[in-house]
Amino acid sequence: MARSETEKMLAGELYRPDDPGIQADLAANKVWLAAYNAALAASPEERRRLLRERLAFVGDGAVIRPPFFCDYGFNIRVGRGVFLNFNCVILDVCAVSIGEATQIGPAVQIYAADHPRDPAQRAEGLEFGRPVAIGRNVWVGGGAIILPGVTVGDDAIIGAGAVVTRDVAPGSTVAGNPARPR
């Protein structure tokens, strides 16, 4: 039996983003995002309730300050005590996990979405994803960008404005573009 475009997307395989099922998921997420982002003045408990409606997992005490943007939501897992500041973007075409007690500054962008390097595949409109995993007790400075397929180890620090193109070892500090150990 042939796999659906959504199944391909979730597995990190090439998929067609214009597929009706994928487009329906995107449309449903837009409705949810409008409600979530309108809840800026709501209590943290109310916002967490809204997050749990859409995200794969939301740990106790997790806070995501609106405005927040994501593609689907259902591929995002945030652990207990996670904090995302204003204007974070997560392109979650496949799994994005954020470990307990991780602090993420404003305007951080986390990309699981990727595009083929082969120009013919790009011209066909194909896309794919690579999971992003951020460990526990990580600090990500404002404006940092974490690219597809990156794993950030526990207790790491990512400097503000860093562009993280490679895995970050546990306990290390990286900064710059591209991010390098400091």
Brief descriptors of the model:
182 residues; alpha/beta; UDP N-Acetylglucosamine Acyltransferase, domain 1; 19 strands; 22% helix; 25% strand; transferase
Quick recap of the structure?
With 182 residues, this protein is of the alpha/beta class.
Q: What can you tell me about this protein's structure?
A:
- This protein is of the alpha/beta class and 182 residues long.
- The chain has a single domain, classed as UDP N-Acetylglucosamine Acyltransferase, domain 1, CATH 2.160.10.
- It has four helices and 19 strands.
- The protein has helices at residues 5-10, 20-37, 44-54, 119-123, and strands spanning 57-58, 63-64, 68-70, 76-78, 83-84, 88-91, 96-98, 103-104, 109-111, 113-114, 128-129, 132-134, 139-140, 145-146, 151-152, 157-158, 163-164, 173-175, 180-181.
- The protein has a seven-stranded mixed beta sheet. The chain has a five-stranded parallel beta sheet with strand order 1-4-7-12-15, covered by helices on one side. A five-stranded parallel beta sheet has the order 3-6-9-14-17.
- A hairpin with a 4-residue loop joins β18 (173-175) and β19 (180-181).
- α2 packs antiparallel against α3 (44-54).
- The longest helix has 18 residues, at 20-37.
- The protein is globular.
- The chain starts with a helix and ends with a strand.
- The model has no long low-confidence stretch (mean pLDDT 97).
> Beta-sheet strand percentage?
25-35%
Number of beta strands: 19
Uncertain runs are: none
- Sheet bearing the most strands, described? 7 strands, mixed
Proportion in helices: 10-25%
CATH-defined topology: UDP N-Acetylglucosamine Acyltransferase, domain 1
Distance from first to last alpha carbon: 50 Å
CATH superfamily: Hexapeptide repeat proteins
H/E element string? HHHEEEEEEEEEEHEEEEEEEEE
- Average pLDDT over all residues: 97
- Strands side by side in the biggest sheet: 2-5-8-13-16-18-19
